[in-house]
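notes to self, project folder thing:

trying the whole complex as one job this time. last attempt i did each chain seperately and stitching them together was a nightmare. two parts in total, labels are on each line so i dont mix them up again. if this works i'll redo the older ones the same way
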Amino acid sequence: MLAEVLIQLVVVVGILLPVSIALFVGRERLVRTRSEWRTRLKTAAPTIAVLLVVLLINRFARQRAPRLSREIGFHLTASFYNIEGEFILLFQSIATPETTAYFSSIYVYGYVFLIVFPVLAYFTLPDTRMFRRLLTAYALNYVIGLVLYIFVIAYGPRNVMPADVAATMLFENNPQYQYLTREVNSNTNVFPSLHTSLSATVATFAAITRSTFPKWFPVAVALAASVAISTMFLGIHWGIDVVAGMLLAALCVVLSDRLVGRWAVSELLGERLERFEDRIPWLERSE
Amino acid sequence: MLATAAGLTVSSSGCLRRVRNIVRTDDIQQLSVTITTVPADADRQAIRIARHLEENLRAVGIDVSLDLRSDIEFRRAVLYDHEFEICVGHHPGGTDPDFLYEALYSRYIDESGWQNPFGFTDRNIDTHLVAQRTAEGDARRKAVTAMLEAIATEQPFVPLCVPEEHRVVRTDRFDGWDEGHPATRHGYLGLEPAAGVDTLRLAHLDGRLTENCNPIATDYRDRGTITDLLYDSLATKNGDGPIEPWLAESWAWNDRTVDITLRDGCEFHDGEPVTADDVEFTYRFLQDTSLGNHGTPSPAPLYRGQVDAVESVESRTDHRVELSVETSPAVGARALLVPILPAHHWRDRAVDVVGPGGPSVAQGTTEAVATNNIPPIGSGPFQFGGRTEGAQLVLERFDDHFTRRPGVDLPAPTVDECRIDIHPSGDTAAQVVANGDADATSLPLGAADIDGVETPAGVAMRDASPWTFYCLGFNTRDAPFSNYRFRRLLAQLVDKEWLVDEVFHGHARPIATPVTDDWVPESLEWHGTDPETPFLGSEGEVDVDAAKAAFETAGFRYDDYGRLRVRQ
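result (full assembly):
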C-alpha cells in the first residue's frame, strides 16, 4: 500500500512541477541555469549538505524520539484541549465531499509540491542567496520542530474527538495515507504543525521574491493557507499547533537571513562565542 | 487535632472564621478529576467513552481533564505506577469469574500489574472472592453470585459493555477457521491450507508485538495470543471451552493436589529439553521473579491470581510434577494455563534493573519484567523467525512440537511460516485481507469498522465469543474514589445503553457485571437498563437536577455556582 501511495505522489508532483516551472520560472532562467548550474551548486554545497544532514538526523530521530520523549516529554494533549476546546470543529461547517477531497489532496500532494517547487525555482536565480536561505530555513524548521516534538507529547484532535471529525478526517476517507504518514511521523508529534511552518516559510519567501516570481506569490500564499486550514479541517492539528507553526516559520525566515550570506558559518560561530563569553561575568572571575 | 481545635475556637467568632477561610482556602474546593485513557489511534471507543463521561461530569459541576497516553504508557500509568484517578480502558476479563480475585483482592493493593490496579480493599468483598475459589459445584455458583452482587454494590470499577469479536478471514486460502477461538492459540493451529499455501499471513494492528515478546510484560501484552504460540502451557483452553491437557500429557487430581505427567521428549526452540524442573521453576519464578533476592517476593505483573493459587510445586521425576493448590480443582486448574518458561534463560533474569526507560513495578523491577525477550525461546508450536520493529514479526513452525506427532489429537501448526504484519488501523487491516494480501485480521475489528467491511468471494467474517469488557476504573486509594457512594454516582453518569448504540454501533452488549453470560446472576441481568446503577438521564444526556440531588443525598455539597465541592 505504501508503494501505491508513493507512486501516486511522485506522479502527481511530477506533473505539477514541470508545468509550474514553465508557468512561473520561464525559459530564460532555465537556459541560464543550464550553463551556470555547476558554480551555483558549488556555492550552495555547504547549505545543501547541512539540510541533508538535518533530514538524515530527522529521519533517524523520529523513530527514536518517541522513547526519549516518553522519558523527558510533557503531556500537553489535555492543556491544548482545555485551552481551545472544540475550536477546530468550526472548519467542519464548510465540510462537503468536495472540500474534503480538496483539503485531503492539498494536505498530501499540494504540500509536497509547495515545498519542492521553490527549491527548483530559487535554484534558477543567478544569485544563490535565496536558494541557500530557503534550504537553511527548511533545516531550521526540522531541527526546531524535532526538539519541540521531543519535549511536547500531544495527540491531535482526531485522537481526542474521533467522531466529531470523522466526516472530514483524512484517514477515514483515505485510510491508505496512514502507510505514508506513519513512515514520516508518530501520532504524538503534533506541536508544532510542520505542514504549516514549512508552507508558511515558502509563502513568506514567495512574498520576499514576489518581484522575481510575481505569478508564484499568490499561488504560494493560497496553497500555504490551504495547507494550514487542511491540517485543522482534516482533524490532524490543533489551532495551537498551526499558530506555533506560523511563529516557527517566521523565526526560521528571520534566522535564515541572519545566518546566510553575511558570514561563513564558521566565522559566525566564532564571533558569537566571543560575544557570549563577554556577557558571562563568572568566566572572567574564574580567570 | 490542631485543626479541629482551631475550628472549634473560630466557630464562635465570625471575624476569626474569615481569618480561617483565608488561611485554609484550599481545603474545600471544586472537585477536579482526571480521566486517563488511550488515543483514538489505539482505541477509538475508549476515548469516546471518556468524552461522554467528561461531558456528564462537567454537567454535574465537576471539573474534568483528559489525560491521553499511548498503549504502553497507559498500562504503565494505570497498572504499574497507579498514577490515575479514573481510567477508561479495555479489560482482558476472563471466561471464569475467578479473574475478579486477581482484579480486586486487597492483598494485591501495593503490587503492579493486573492484580488490583484499583487499589481496592474491602473485607466483605475479600471474603466473597476467597469463598468462590474454594467452593465447588452448586456451592461455587452461589458463591460467585454473592460475589458479583457484592461487587456490583461497591462498584470498584464500572463494567460498561462486552464488545463483539469479528475478524475477517480468507476462506479460499485456509479452511477450519471456526475450530479455534482466534483470541487463543487454537485460532491459528489446525487450519487447513489450500493446495500450495504454506504461509499464514496475519494482519495485526499493534506494533508493540514487534518491540517486545516478553510473556509477562503487561505493558506490551493484551491477551497474549501470539506469545501463546511461542510458549506452551501445561493445559490449554479454546475460548470458553474446558481446560484440557497440552504440554501435560495427563493429570490426576487427588483432593487439592494434582499429579501432572509431561509429554515425553519435548524441547525448547534452542534444543534444550523441557523438564519437570522447568515447570517447577516457572511457578516459583512467576510467584517471585527475584527468586528470593528481595526480602519480599516480587510476583510477575501477569498471571498473579492463577499462580497465587499454587501452594507448592515439586518436580517428582523428569516428567512428573506435583502441584498443590489452595483452591478448588476447578479454579486451581487455571494455574495450568500459564506459559512454561525455560529455566536456563529466565533464571538469570531475577536480577534487578536499574536506570530509566523501562517499566518500574512496585514489587521490585527485575530483568524478567523489563526484558524485551527477543528472541523469545519457548517450546510452543511456532518459534521466532525474525522481526522488523514496528512493521513485522515472523514466526516459523517448530517442527518438533508434540502436536505434530502421530497419535496426538491436538491442533498443530500446519504452515511453515506465520507472518504478522502491522497495519496502521482496523479498516486498512480488513482491506488487505479483502485484497488478498493477508489471510486474517488477528485482532477483532473496531466497532466502527465492522459495518463497512467488504467480504468478496473467498473472504468471510469470523465471529467469536467475547469476554473482554470496557470499564471505568477508579483509583480507590484516594478520596473521593474511596467512597462507594461516589463511585456508584459516577457509574450512574454513564449511559451504557447509549454508548453501545452510539459508540459501538450496536456491536457490543451492555453489562452490569463483567462475567460471561452463563455466570450472570438473575439480579444483574440487563433488561434495557442497568439493574444496579441506572443512568441518571436519558439518551446519553444526564438529568442535571436529578444527578445533583443524588450527589447531595450522598453527602456532597454544591456551591452557589453549582460546582461540586469536595475535600481533596
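what i see at first glance: Chain A touches chain B at residues 1, 63, 67, 70-71, 75, 77-78, 81-82, 155, 158-163, 171, 175-176, 178-179, 182, 187-188 (CB under 8 Å).
need to look closer tmrw
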